[in-house]
Amino acid sequence: MGFHSLLSPSILVLFFIFLTSSSSEVTKPIKLVDNICKKTSNYTFCVDTLYSDSRVGSPDTDSYLLGYVSFGLAYINATTTSSQIPVLLKNANTQKNASLQHALQQCHRYYKKAVSAIEEAYNDLNSDTYSNLISLAKVASDSASDCEGSFNGTVKPYPLTERNNGLRRLCEICVVVSKLFT
Ligand SMILES: *[C@@H]1O[C@H](CO)[C@@H](O)[C@H](O)[C@H]1NC(C)=O
Ligand SMILES: *[C@@H]1O[C@H](CO)[C@@H](O)[C@H](O)[C@H]1NC(C)=O
Ligand SMILES: *[C@@H]1O[C@H](CO)[C@@H](O)[C@H](O)[C@H]1NC(C)=O
Ligand SMILES: *[C@@H]1O[C@H](CO)[C@@H](O)[C@H](O)[C@H]1NC(C)=O
């Protein structure tokens, strides 16, 4: 009797470990991406984000491509949020609350600043000018933090927390990629 009942649970456990370890390794990133993402606060997010662009992972993936991809994603993210803010401002509940309105108006300015910083970074990449990339990525990231901060004193939950954190996470990748150019 004892033999099977001892053996089969351990085989099951081994099989389970095999399954879970292989499924968490969805993307095995190339060395350059691996090195970049190790320097960010969320490795998985970083790898998934960069690999969301189908060009990433091919043999000719280089820092230029990763620059375009990371700033491109940050650009889409910031413009999307920026265009959402006027919608929130028109919302009936917002209209009842002057402090919330004020915070959203400030956020709109911060997001315009973020969008133009990312645009400038993108143009810099196009013209092989790399010295400002890091600081432009930080301007965009700080704009998201400033937007979040402008809700201080209004009622929680703040309406843009998720989006602000999202832009900051993308900007963190931009900063690490930008450091490849220095
Ligand atoms: C890292 O990012 C993933 C999404 O890509 C998320 O599911 C996970 O919770 C994040 N981890 C931390 C510690 O924030
Ligand atoms: C929020 O505002 C209060 C007082 O107005 C201030 O003491 C506090 O430092 C502010 N918090 C943040 C995160 O800015
Ligand atoms: C408006 O915001 C203030 C804080 O800024 C809060 O005390 C108040 O409850 C809010 N009013 C409405 C109608 O949501
Ligand atoms: C931007 O980031 C937020 C937060 O992670 C996310 O919810 C949103 O889908 C992103 N938007 C785009 C267009 O990538």
TrEMBL record:
The keyword Membrane does not apply. NCBIfam families: PME_inhib. Belongs to the PMEI family. CDD domains: PMEI_like. This is Pectinesterase inhibitor domain-containing protein. The lineage of its organism: Eukaryota, Viridiplantae, Streptophyta, Embryophyta, Tracheophyta. Pfam families: PMEI. One of its GO terms (molecular function) is enzyme inhibitor activity. It comes from Aquilegia coerulea (Rocky mountain columbine). Keywords: Disulfide bond, Signal. Residues 1-24 form the signal peptide. Residues 28-177 form the Pectinesterase inhibitor domain. The keyword Signal applies. InterPro entries: Invertase/methylesterase_inhib, PCW_Enzyme_Inhibitor, Pectinesterase_inhib_dom.
